[in-house]
Structure to design on (448 residues):
């Protein structure tokens, strides 16, 4: 195993590990010291990729998208830094900016260092190993009980949390990554197949055990949407469609029989939680967020400073359950505009992956698009974008879509060049053959 392969696998795996060396960044007005993990294990792999894996030239077709993606990503980060001048609690802001900076660096690392099919496969393997680690913990919490690991502070709640400590955030994480395991198992020939099936099953079980309504809906909606596209575009063979239907029917039947009452109970008060007139409903949160946005439309209140401006009568963490409103409130409307423009543009471009002739790139690319779409839906009803692991994986998923397009274009260009070389060789061979025949005919005439 060469160095680049090892670094990419380690990079993908460590994206799921939230642990590091904490540095105190300031003191809150309450007198409590506030710190952040300024160095995490994923940083070692990331900086090693920057140092040891050279960037490759980007194909002309996607050079504009590449420059656009890098420019807006960096601009979003720089714009977020203005919160230092307006934040009520600068120490909290510095916590947020440290982790956003890491996420943007992860985004830039993938854009500049992941550019071939092999790079993507290696990174995907690492991501799946990280998913397996989290899924095993979540599945164990669901079926057997608390998990205790000496090097991770795991919260054992009434629902599965993995190492993310929050059930809803864990559900978001699984909704984003599980499509990769499913596509890898069902539609690629990458081995060992049994491992991808196992990871898929564990991830689905853990996702169910998060009891996260938003994650359930986002995952289901995105999976149905993209598999429907596959069927209409005839990207799946009849046998694959049969397998897909069988897996779907078995999963739905088993879940309905064994856990139907749990799901029904969990969904029972959804309407009240979303649109009731109480201040702690999703609607109440959104109205309070709009009040803050109107008051600070340009600069926002600064990263991690939202709760200091929220209505004091709102219960709990007082964080709006909508990532887009949260970004607008904390980073201003310009920050939201940059975020939406960047995400929307890359996602729309991502549909070009459907034209890929490479089976592996197509299915892994569609898995990335499925996860990204699930994330967009989930962000409408949850604030978990602000959490470290979710933030890192959001920017990772965004960059990977561009990497898929670039890698596929390299393969297409390589095939065209190969066909052109063969055509030239055939042309030269034909010309040589004709010249030889002509010489033979001329020699025969002279002899005659």
């Amino acid at each position: 195993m060469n160095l680049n392969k090892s670094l990419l696998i380690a990079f993908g795996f460590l994206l799921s590990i939230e642990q590091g060396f904490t540095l105190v960044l300031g003191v809150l007005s309450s007198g409590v010291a506030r710190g952040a993990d300024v160095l995490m294990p994923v940083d070692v792999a990331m900086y090693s990729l920057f140092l040891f894996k050279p960037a490759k030239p980007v194909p002309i077709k996607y050079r504009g998208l590449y420059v656009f993606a890098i420019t807006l990503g960096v601009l979003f980060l720089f714009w977020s830094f203005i919160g230092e001048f307006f934040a009520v609690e600068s120490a909290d802001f510095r916590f947020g900016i440290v982790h956003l900076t890491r996420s943007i660096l992860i985004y830039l690392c993938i854009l500049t260092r992941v550019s071939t099919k092999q790079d993507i496969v290696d990174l995907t393997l690492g991501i799946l190993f990280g998913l397996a680690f989290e899924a095993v913990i979540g599945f164990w919490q669901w079926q057997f009980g608390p998990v205790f690991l000496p090097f991770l502070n795991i919260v054992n709640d009434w629902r599965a949390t993995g190492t993310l400590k929050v059930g809803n955030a864990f559900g978001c994480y699984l909704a984003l990554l599980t499509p990769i395991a499913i596509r890898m198992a069902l539609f690629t020939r990458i081995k060992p197949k049994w491992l991808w099936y196992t990871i898929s099953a564990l991830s689905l079980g853990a996702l169910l055990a998060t009891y996260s309504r938003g994650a359930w809906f986002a995952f289901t909606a995105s999976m149905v949407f993209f598999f429907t596209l596959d069927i209409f575009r005839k990207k799946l063979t009849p046998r694959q469609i049969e397998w897909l239907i069988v897996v779907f029917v078995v999963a739905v039947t088993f879940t309905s029989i064994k856990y139907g009452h749990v799901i029904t109970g969990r969904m029972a008060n959804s309407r009240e939680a979303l649109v009731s007139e109480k201040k702690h409903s999703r609607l109440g949160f959104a109205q309070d967020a709009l009040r803050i946005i109107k008051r600070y439309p340009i600069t926002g209140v600064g990263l991690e400073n939202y709760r200091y401006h929220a209505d004091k009568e709102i219960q709990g963490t007082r964080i709006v359950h909508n990532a887009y409103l949260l970004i607008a409130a904390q980073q201003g409307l310009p920050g939201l505009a940059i975020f939406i423009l960047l995400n929307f543009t890359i996602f729309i471009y991502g549909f070009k992956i459907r034209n890929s002739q490479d089976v592996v790139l197509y299915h892994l690319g569609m898995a990335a698009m499925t996860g990204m779409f699930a994330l967009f839906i989930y962000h409408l009803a949850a604030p978990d974008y602000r959490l470290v692991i979710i933030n890192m994986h959001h920017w990772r998923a965004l960059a990977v879509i561009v990497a898929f397009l670039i890698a596929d274009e390299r393969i297409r260009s390589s095939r065209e060049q190969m066909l052109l070389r063969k055509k030239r060789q055939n042309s030269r061979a034909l010309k040589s053959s004709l010249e030889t025949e002509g010489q033979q005919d001329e020699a025969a005439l002279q002899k005659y």
Summary: The beta strands are 21-27, 33-39. The chain has 14 helices and two strands. The chain has one domain: 3-241+271-427. Residues 3-241+271-427 form one domain.
